[in-house]
Every structure is written in structure tokens, then in C-alpha cells.
Amino acid sequence: MLWNPHINEDVNKIIEEPVDASVDNTKQAARLIVIRRKKMKKHKLKKLRKKMKFEWAKLRQKRELRKEKEFQAGLIQQCKTAESFSAEEYVNEKLAEYNMISIPKKWKGRNMPESMIREKMGLPPEK
């Protein structure tokens, strides 16, 4: 073996880290923990979706079926009301409403009973 000037003679000597109280060499891995949690949540969510895929599809289908039934019931109700509609009755109601005499609540700025207002207007008393 040849002599190499770059090799230290004290090969067996253990090199120790210098002791300095002002330097803190502890690693801060808070961000790594956050990333790890995020990845784990993502993994668990994928696993849950895979597991519950068909159960959720069944629930979704039931929900859509229920909505469809409610919609159909509403349509049937609309059809029934349309079939029970009578144009003659409607016109008669509107004409009666139009021909009805409205009695004011006040007469010349004073509150009075309806019978007195009818009397002053020259209308027959209410039956």
C-alpha cells in the first residue's frame, strides 16, 4: 500500500459532532404530516367510493323514482282539476262578482254600520 497524503493518519479516531447549544438541528416535518394525512384521506375516500358504489346507486335510483312518482301524481291532479272545470260556472261566478254592489266601510269620512250605509245609498237592506 502506498502512502497517500490525503488520508488522515488517525483513521480509528471517532469524529464527534460539535456541541453547540444555540443550534437546533431537529427536523420540522409538520408539512409532511399534513401531506400524508391528505393522501390518506384521499385513499380512504377512494376505498369508500369503491365499496359503496352500488349501495349509493341504489339510493340514488330510489330517490329519483320517488321524485318521478310525486311528479306524476301532480300531473294527475292537474288533469283532474282541468276535467272538473266548467266554463259556464266560471262565467256565472265572474258575472255575479261583477254585478255585486260593493258597500264602502265609511260614509262621508265616518265609520258607520253597513246597514246605515245601505240606507243612505238607497239600497235595500241586506237579507
TrEMBL record:
Any Pfam family from its record, for instance, is COX24_C
Give every Ribosomal protein mS38 C-terminal domain span. 28-61
Please indicate which superkingdom the organism of origin belongs to. Eukaryota
Q: What is this protein called?
A: Ribosomal protein mS38 C-terminal domain-containing protein
What species was this sequence derived from?
Oryctes borbonicus
